[in-house]
Structure formats: C-alpha cells, structure tokens
Amino acid sequence: MPAPAPAPVAVDEKVLLPQLMQAVFADAYRPASKDALAELPEPDERSVRSLHLITPTAAKVLENGLAALVVNGEMADEQGITSTAHVTPGRLSVYLLRQENGKWVLQRRHENVAELGSMGQSGSAQWVTLAPGKPGLAMLHGGTWQGYSIRFLSLFDLSDENMRHMLGEQVESDSEGACGPETSECWQVEGKWRIATPAEGQRYGDVLMDFSGAREALPQGVEGGKRVKHAVKGSARYSYRDGAYKLVNGANLVPGV
Hints:
The protein is globular. It has one helix and 14 strands. The longest helix has 13 residues. It has an eight-stranded antiparallel beta sheet, with no helix packed on it. It has a six-stranded antiparallel beta sheet with strand order 1-2-3-4-5-6, with helices on one face. By secondary structure, the protein is mainly β.
C-alpha cells in the first residue's frame, strides 16, 4: 500500500514565490526585479524557443505536497524590454515542484500552455478543486477596448501531465466606458461561477454560472428617445466532454465585445 502524500506545509506566498522562481530559472532569475529572462518554447511551434520576460503570478503548496508556480511570459529582447501592445496576450506557464532535503526540485513544466488576456498579462489566478484529488487553476483575464470591458474564465488541471486549456468563457462584461446619451445599447452583466461536486463517473465537476445585470437598448424602429432597461438573469452549466468543458444547459448571457 503506497504511503500517503505528506500534508502540505503552509508557506506565505511572498516567501514561496522567490524560492520557486529561483528553483525553476536558476541564473536566469533576477532577484532585484523579481523576474526572469529565459527562453521558452513558442506556443504554436514547440521546437522554436524565444526569449521571454517572466514574472510570477501566484504560488501555492497543494494538498499532494507539490508546489505550483504560475507565471506570465512576454516576448522580450536581451535587455528584458518587451514588445507588448494592447492586443498582445500574456503567455501562461505552470511549474510543479517538490521539496527534497529542504530544497525545491522541479518535477514538471507546462510552458506557454495558453495565451490569455491583453497588454501582455495573462490575468489573476485562483486555486480551485475540479474533483477529489484534482487541484485546478482558474485564470481570470480580459481587457478593455474603446470603453468596452470583458473578463474570461479559463480552467486548467494541475494534476494533468498534459495540461491544457479546458474552458474559456466570458464571465463579465460592460460598456461603461462607451455608454453615452446617444449609444443604442449599454449593459453590465456578471456571471458568478462555481465548480460542482462531480457525479459518479465524472472526471471533473460541472462549471455552474449564474448571470445577473442589466441591458439598456433603444426600442426597434424608434429614432432617438430613451433606452429601455431590461434585467438580465439566467444560468448556464458546462460539463467536461471529449477533452474540454462544453455548454450542456442554459446560455452564457455575458455579451461579447
């Protein structure tokens, strides 16, 4: 009978991040700026490697004793200067390490597994449980374009040796920065999301979203006048099938931008 995994040791993220960055990137880690300048494989051509400016996003010691390091990458020159533009996504990488003899040792690397967000930033991280024994990573990312803002939810299985982007759905958007007196349609809609306990036979729990907010629009066939406000309320359920989460019930009511 295999020995149980050691209980995770609570480590402050501010302490853990530089330790893991040093363990993963070694001499490429720059303590003064708390980042690294290293080559990573290109997302679409893994045999091609490019120089990236790598900054830490989040870190946590998981229940199985492994530490997960989530980082953001931007293509850069040898001085660490990036060529990021507004439409440039950030590049997400995840590293898993185990502590051996008081040192963190790299176990698995998942480099440039997804391009998310804008302005070279792949978003903020949240730690979730996809199913018993399956720790997950949720990334919330998006941007603002000409006054329209949107945020997406992306999910990854930290226990999967072939980590992949399993869900990418909008969970919030608004037209606040573009809504003027003559704008034909304005809105603010948000989706509260959670992961359900998986039913027997399910690999991962379903993703449940509850939407709320409001949309305002001019009546059809009417020029000028006042926008009519309508409440937005509904739900959606996503189940994991054939390698990804797919909508199985309801509808995503968050408008795209």
